[in-house]
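Many groups now describe folds with learned vocabularies. In that spirit, our science desk offers one protein's residues alongside their backbone shape tokens.
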Amino acid sequence: MLLPLITILVGLIGLLWSADRFVGAAAATAYRAGMSTLLIGMTIVALGTSAPEILVSIMAALDGVPNLATGNALGSNIANIGLVLGITALVAPIPVRFSIVRRELPLLLGATGLAGYALANGILGRFDALFLLALLGFSLWWLFRADTPDEEAPGQVPDMTLPKALAWLALTLLLLVASSRLLVWGASELARSFGISELVIGLSIVAIGTSLPELAACVSSALKRHHDIAIGNVIGSNLFNMLAVLPIPGMLAPGPIDPAAASRDFPTMLTLTLLLGALLLWQRHGAIGRLPGGVLAVLYGGYLGWLALSL
């Protein structure tokens, strides 16, 4: 019992430390390539903060616990909207660009709907995974095609030479792999010890743990008033979770999924995604303030309570 708890703690600390530095190195490299702040948030920072989810899902699928991987993808999206965006808005209101509503929001809504279609029959197979990965390729092409570079470097991007940034990318990627391996082993052992389903562990402990990089990046961005990185990170991370993380168990361990994923967790994620869409449309020339942020945080707390009652 004690060893899995220690392993989870060490894995989470490793993920947080390495993901933070991975994001910095990746953002520095991307900015030198002429990418805008919003695109850095939507792609590089989002990919960096989604790296724990991606690696945890790979390890879970290879270890024969694909439901933990599925729960990680769905639970991380729920946590990103309810916990990460909610707390970030409580820290500082988040201005909304109309371009986000026009360009990025439809991608997220489309990816969420297609992910629901893939889960609807209770089986996540290789065809579903390939379909979602193809949509990921289209989404990345669309974002890069419509990007307009900034004139000044955002404060979120560290001042690094290209060789130094690449060295940090390689080092932190190795640490991410090792940390995710520890986290998956500890979480699966804990689930077996208490008789808790791997899906619930993935939706709660693992999802919150792997969403901590998003929370740290968004709160830091909001405090520094780099709001494009903050909101772009949440939308981009959720897009990656649906199109890069969810297909992993379908590719590596195709088969049936826990029925609760389609009946309880996907509807919750869809509801929060639609609520986020409504907030962005309502405030497309304003900001997501503390009241909506508080509502999102309370809804996330209610969802965790629902999960606890289902144990």
User: Anything to note?
Assistant: The mean pLDDT is 81.
